[in-house]
Amino acid sequence: MQQQLPITILADSRFSSSLKPLLTQLEMWINFQALKADWFGDEACILSFEFTLVRTIEEQGLQTVASGKNWRVEPGYAYSYDSESLKTTAYIAVADLLEAGVGIEQGIKQRLVSVANSVGAEHGLLGLSL
Question: Distance between CA 91 and CA 81 in Å, rounded?
Answer without folding.
Answer: 12
